[in-house]
Amino acid sequence: MPDTAIKQSHHLPVISVADAKRRGLLSRGMLARLGLSTDAAPVAVLQKEDGTEIPLFDPNHVKAASGKAEPATPTAKERPALPTRDENGELPRISARRADALGLFSREALTRSYYEPTDEPIAYYLRKDGTRVELYEKATCRRLPMPCIRCGNEVRYRAKLCRTCYERELAEKRRAGDARRAAYYGRKPQEVLFFDLELTGVYDHDEVLSITIINGLGETVLDTLVRPLKKRRWPRTEKIHGITPNMVQNAPTMTELTPKLVDVFAGAKHLIAFGTSTDYSHLRRIYKTRTEQGRLRAKLIDCAAEFSSYIHEHGIDLVHRSLSDAMAHFSLAWEGEAHTSAAGTQACRLVFHTLFPHFYESEVT
Ligand SMILES: [Zn+2]
């Protein structure tokens, strides 16, 4: 893929290849090979021997390209049979056009896309000047380390960045995250509610079996079993939460609990749970309008997502990030049975308070 060369630049600085490398500037061709594109104007140009110029772009203003950036390789189905060596073991000579059709690449083209041949060439073509260009099948090539999209000098480590750039970015995120967590929110603990639901299963057609709501002081606001309307048995989740069909026989239904829940949520500023998406899909049904549902959603804080951000930003090696993992990580003690919704709600409250230690305080000025 050739770089898009422009004939003349009116105002852009002409820089050397070494300079471009040092500044991590990327040409259109390099962007395409990295699967990136940009809307930004070029910041400098490279001058080729024939006087044409290659525009260079700032790597900080790039985005993932929408289309596929790599040279297209025909799929095995639509590809004609590859040529084979003749009886003397000579490589077959093919035209450049045929090489394209067969999805064969020169070593040079492969290197530009960060591939390296690991196998013998399978054909060659002759350039106009008579030089022989050997061709390789991409499927047999090894992927070479790709450069960092920020600095362009180092090899990628994570998230398309080299280790230095990645760690610099993570440190910035950490500073912002730590400042956000350490902020003084001045909330009233009575208006901050922690909740947990137990369900018959994880799907939308599943039903609520229990609801626990406590406030920021740890006081119980609501703790009730719920009788499902359709489900009669839930053997799989029963093993986890221990709620049997018998236990909910005389419990109120969600419909019966709705006025109470609407009232409780109306008085809350925040509703916090460890993992909120499934719970939200059940709780929103107590409201009829999208506006009311949106208001509920706006109050939700996912303690699991907050814990996960904290772990990520601090570079802590913790693969599993369940509520139990969070409790263990912060050396917090459980009250009661770990899998009951009452204990789970209290645990979520403890983890949240550890992450946001000044949630109920106002900053002294
Ligand atoms: Zn870098």
Structure description:
With 365 residues, this protein is α+β, with helices and mostly antiparallel strands. It folds into 4 domains: 14-64, no CATH class; 72-144, no CATH class; 150-181; 189-355, Ribonuclease H-like superfamily/Ribonuclease H (Nucleotidyltransferase, domain 5, 2-Layer Sandwich), CATH 3.30.420.10. It contains 12 helices and 16 strands. Strands 14-13-12-15-16 form a 5-stranded mixed beta sheet, with helices on both faces. A hairpin with an 8-residue loop joins β12 (192-199) and β13. α5 (163-181) crosses α10 (303-313), α10 (303-313) packs across α12 and α11 packs across α12. The radius of gyration is 31 Å and the shape is elongated. Residues 1-9 and 67-72 have low confidence and may be disordered.
Task: Using brief descriptors, characterize the structure shown.
365 residues; alpha+beta; 4 domains; five-stranded mixed β-sheet; four-stranded mixed β-sheet; 12 helices; 16 strands; disordered N terminus; binds zinc ion
Largest sheet: 5 strands, mixed
The CATH architecture of the largest domain can be named as 2-Layer Sandwich
- What class do helices, strands and sheet pairing give? alpha+beta
Succession of helices and strands: EHEHEEEEHEHEEEEHEEEHHEHHEHHH
The backbone outline, from C-alpha atoms, is elongated
CATH C-level category of the largest domain: Alpha Beta
> Can you tell me the residue ranges where pLDDT is under 50 for at least 5 consecutive residues?
1-9, 67-72
Distinct bound molecules: zinc ion
Query: Over the alpha carbons, how many angstroms does the gyration radius reach?
Result: 31 Å
CATH superfamily of the largest domain: Ribonuclease H-like superfamily/Ribonuclease H
Q: What's the number of extended β-strand segments?
A: 16
Which percent bin holds the helix content?
Answer: 25-40%
Can you tell me the number of structural domains? 4
Strand order in space, largest sheet: 14-13-12-15-16
